[in-house]
Design brief:
It contains 15 helices and 3 strands. By secondary structure, it is mainly alpha-helical.
């Protein structure tokens, strides 16, 4: 009953929030200098975070979604793990929503809140909160504190950067949370249909006509028509918090971590900052080959499955888990091998 309710709440909630977000100005737009990274010119509602939060609240999250791990954690700490988990999720949602609202504003408060040190500090705090929710004494054990701060930084960075193409972050949440928390996975599934454009394309991707249309419009290959809704920073932050709170879901992050590591090194080698935006991620390369956004999301999610299945089927077997991780990395490497290298603006290198 819980997964079905979460799916329905996310699906219907997104449908109702899209027109309200467009009227209220909660839409995605490219900041100055980011037009090549966000080439669409139609408004896209940033309601994914609110829709996921609605689904979680309707299903009494976090007590339902995290009941097994919270029951174990309850015996190891005086702090209520349920309260700690809810605090982490709400803080992540609030910070992401603030980011969506202030991203295009240049006043002093916006620059301070969106500065890199502030974001890193927020990720570290979320990591400490997740450690408390899992019953670890992060306030008195420096080793545990460093571990969870690092986990907060890595999970936050990997999920945020993996949201670079339609459906990728939602598919990641679906795969990562399906076994440890099917209720939250169902919420991701309920949002996913709104994260794709179902309108027919004028030309088949990968054809000369599509290439000519892309060149005439000045848009990168594979940019296409935008979907009705995005996760936004609020959605990716909340999804990252859910995965951070669920250590059993961490193996799914092997592909996002590999991708963000690869593009960071490429940016450093080109003399750019490792966190600067571009169109060099795995999803961009697959789109440039002519694959539809849905196909790209399916392939990227499938690359995560070996690690996910290994962790779910044999959680106590380290060799089995490492075999799954190697399998996911091999799938990621194969997808890189069959796709072209791209310049930062999305053109073929």
């Amino acid at each position: 009953m819980g997964p079905l309710l979460a799916f329905s709440a996310a699906f219907l909630g997104t449908a109702l929030m899209i027109p309200a977000a467009r009227r209220g100005g909660l839409i995605d737009r490219a900041a100055p200098g980011e037009e090549f990274r966000k080439p669409h010119r139609e408004p896209v509602a940033l309601v994914g975070g609110l829709a996921l939060a609605l689904a979680a609240l309707v299903t009494s999250w976090p007590a339902m979604g995290f009941e097994p791990q919270l029951t174990v954690a309850q015996s190891r700490t005086e702090l209520s793990p349920t309260a700690a988990a809810a605090g982490v999720a709400l803080l992540a949602l609030f910070l992401g929503q603030l980011d969506d609202r202030l991203h295009h504003r240049r006043h002093r408060i916006g620059r301070l809140l969106l500065a890199l040190p502030t974001r890193l500090g927020a990720s570290g705090i979320l990591g400490l909160g997740a450690g408390l929710a899992n019953g670890h004494a992060v306030l008195s054990d420096p080793g545990q504190a460093l571990f969870w701060v690092g986990a907060g930084l890595l999970v936050g960075a990997s999920v945020a950067t993996y949201d670079h193409a339609d459906g990728l972050a939602g598919g990641l949440g679906l795969a990562a949370l399906w076994f440890p928390s099917p209720t939250l996975a169902a919420a991701c599934l309920g949002f996913l249909p709104w994260n794709f454009s179902w309108r027919p394309r004028l030309f088949k991707p990968g054809t000369e006509a599509a290439a000519a249309q892309s060149e005439a419009s000045g848009l990168p290959p594979g940019s296409g028509r935008p979907p009705p809704a995005y996760l936004g920073n609020a959605g990716s932050s909340l999804l990252g918090a859910w995965i951070l709170l669920t250590p059993a879901a961490w193996p799914a992050l092997v592909v996002p971590l590999a991708d963000v590591t690869r593009v960071s090194f490429l940016r450093l080698a080109a003399g750019r900052r490792p966190w600067s935006g571009d169109r060099c991620h795995l999803g961009h390369r697959l789109l440039a080959c002519g694959f539809t956004p849905l196909s790209v999301a399916v392939m990227c999610t499938a690359a995560c499955l070996p690690a996910v299945l290994a962790a779910a089927l044999r959680p106590a077997s380290q060799p089995f888990l490492w075999g799954g991780i190697v399998g996911s990395l091999a799938a990621y490497g194969f997808l890189l091998l069959v796709t072209p290298r791209l310049l930062p603006d999305g053109r073929a290198a």
